[in-house]
Amino acid sequence: MEKFTRVTGVAVPLMRANIDTDVIVPAKRLVGHQRDELGGFAFEAHRYRPDRTDNPDFVLNQARYRGAKILVTGENFGCGSSRESAVWALAGFGFHCVIAPSFGDIFFNNAFQNGMLLVCMAKDEVERLAADVEGSVTPVMTVNLVSRAITAPSGAETPFEIDAERRQALLEGRDEIGMTLARDAEIRAFQACDRAVRPWIYRTAPQDTESA
Fold first, then answer.
1. How many Å is the maximal CA-CA distance in the chain?
2. Which of 23, 77, 84, 97 could in theory staple to 117 by disulfide, Cβ–Cβ 3.0 to 4.6 A?
3. Side by side, which strands form the sheet with 6-14?
4. Residue 134: which H helix or E strand, with range?
5. What is the dihedral of CA 168, 174, 175, 179, to 10 degrees?
6. pLDDT tens, position by position, 116-174
7. Helix 105-113 crosses helix 85-93 at what angle (to 10 degrees)?
8. DSSP string, 48-63
9. Residue 71 belongs to a domain
10. Contact between 78 and 19 (Cβ < 8 Å)
C-alpha cells in the first residue's frame, strides 16, 4: 500500500445522500472484469446514457471536474452491500480522498484498508466545502493528512479529526497486517515471557507419560 501524506487536485461536489455501493459500481460489472478495470464503471448509471455516451448533466462529466482526485459528497456514502470493489472502482476512477458527513461502516473500513482517506466532517462544513468548490474558477483542493487540514479552492483552511491508528497506517502505507507486523519485536518479546510463565500453552503435542 502506498504512503498517503497529502493530496492536491480537482475536487468534485456530488451532494447526494445515501449513495450505495451498487451506485458506485454495479454488481453486474464484478464478473468478468479485473480490479484495475472497475474505474471505468464507477457511477456508470449516472455517467452514461443508454448508448454509452457521456451524460452531460452528471457532475463528473463536466469539463472543470475532469481528473478529480477528491470527492465531496452527502451523508451515508458507501452504504449498502459490503463489496470492497466499490473502493477499487473509486480508486480506479482517480479518487484518493472522499469527504462526507458519514459513511457506511463496512465501506469505511474497506477504504482505509486500500489506502483511501475518508474524512468525516459535520454536514454544514461539508456543504461549505462543496459550495466553495462550486463557486471557484479552479476547483483545486488540498487534503493534508500530516497537518489534518483541508485547504479549499478559496484558500480557507478547515481542520479535521481522524482516528490516530488509521492516520498512522495511511502515513506509513500499512494495512492492518502491516501494522501488526510493525510490532513484531514486541509480540516476540511477549511470547518469550509468556512461554516461560505458561509453557503448557505452547505445547503442540501430548507429552509422553510413564505407564503405571
1. 91
2. 97
3. 117-120, 97-100, 70-73, 6-14, 140-144, 149-151, 157-159
4. helix 123-135
5. -70
6. 999 999 999 999 999 999 999 999 999 999 999 999 999 999 999 999 999 999 999 98
7. 60
8. B-TTS-B-TTSGGGSG
9. yes
10. yes
Question: Considering its fold, how many domains does the chain have in total?
Answer: 1
Provide the 10 A C-beta neighbour count for residue 143. 25
- The CATH number linked to 54 is 3.20.19.10
Q: What residues does 118 pair with on adjacent strands?
A: 98
How confident is the model over 49-78, as pLDDT tens digits?
Answer: 999 999 999 999 999 999 999 999 999 999
Contacts of 93 (CB under 8 A, 6+ apart): 39, 42, 43
Region of residue 50 (left: phi > 0; alpha: psi -120 to 50; beta: else) = alpha
DSSP string, 10-37: EEEEE--S--BHHHHS-GGGGSS--GGG
Burial class (CB in 10 A: 0-12, 13-18, 19+), 28: exposed
Long-range contacts of 27-33 (CB under 8 A, 24+ apart): 27/81, 27/83, 30/83, 30/85
Distance separating alpha carbons of residues 4 and 186, to the nearest angstrom: 26
Given the C-alpha cell 516476540, which residue does it identify? 188
Cell of 58: 452528471
Domain that holds residue 88: 6-199
Q: Which residue has the cell 476547483?
A: 139
Nearest alpha carbon to residue 202 among 212, 210, 190, 186: 190
